[in-house]
Amino acid sequence: MKRGMMFSIVLMFLGMGMSTAVLADNASEPMVILQEEVTYEEIQKEDVPEAVLTAVKESYGGYELEKAFLGSDGNYKLKLIKGEQKVFAFFNSNGEVLKVETAEDGK
């Protein structure tokens, strides 16, 4: 009887060790996501899609388009000015605003 009880205890400890080993083996490693930096190339104002120009007129009616850039991701970066105020507005080709940044002097 002692032998049977000892055998049961040994099996129990082995089973607990195996489940820990299985859990450790199934643990997922952290996922690394690399994001490519977007580069912009200046383009002519005439090359900006009509949908983007319409969105600029609707959202930034008093602003003037000073410079236009096309990003390597296909989105547009526009430098808009209104008096002393300067902003960079980012649009997709459908004219949807992606983000807006305040332009610092010298940019």
Automatic annotation (TrEMBL):
Classification via SUPFAM superfamilies: BT0923-like
Signal peptide: 1-24
The entry's keywords: Signal
Protein name: Beta-lactamase-inhibitor-like, PepSY-like
Lineage: Bacteria, Pseudomonadati, Bacteroidota, Bacteroidia, Marinilabiliales
